[in-house]
Amino acid sequence: MTISIGDKIPAATLVEMTADGPNKVSTDELFAGRTVAVFAVPGAFTPTCSARHLPGFVEQADQIVAKGVDEIVCISVNDAFVMGAWGKAQGVDGKVRLLADGNGDLTKALGLTLDGTGFGMGLRSQRYSMLVKDGVVTQLNVEKPGAFEVSDAGTLLGQL
């Protein structure tokens, strides 16, 4: 079953690269009492993710936060080391928090798994964006396979 508007985000553990190394982040703590803009990408350093998806959220971060969002989070089925290196390479500078879903546990629980085995990528996340208020999904924009039309920063900004 795929998550829908009105559903609570399932409990899962993500990992963030910090100056002290990998740090576990629970979804319960991440979303409790806060408004969080979330977007997911099939993979760090992949073409659309690096050229358009992440940069759009970095560029529009101030406008998104000005609309009442406490934090912008990017999730990918990569490890925390890759996510940390991608953030540095993309110059996110604290505007977007990059969280690794290394085993795809959250992605599976959301029902948003993408089978990239035909491309040598294994199981990954579908491309999507969502707005989560106090742990509940209030907006959800899931892309069709291969598309980048509804999960961009501008679309989510317009929904705020």
From TrEMBL:
Its EC number is 1.11.1.27. Keywords: Antioxidant, Oxidoreductase, Peroxidase, Redox-active center. This is Glutathione-dependent peroxiredoxin. GO terms for cellular component: cytoplasm. Gene3D superfamilies: Glutaredoxin. The keyword Nucleotide-binding does not apply. It comes from Tistrella mobilis (strain KA081020-065). Belongs to the peroxiredoxin family. Prx5 subfamily. GO terms for biological process: cell redox homeostasis; cellular response to oxidative stress; hydrogen peroxide catabolic process.
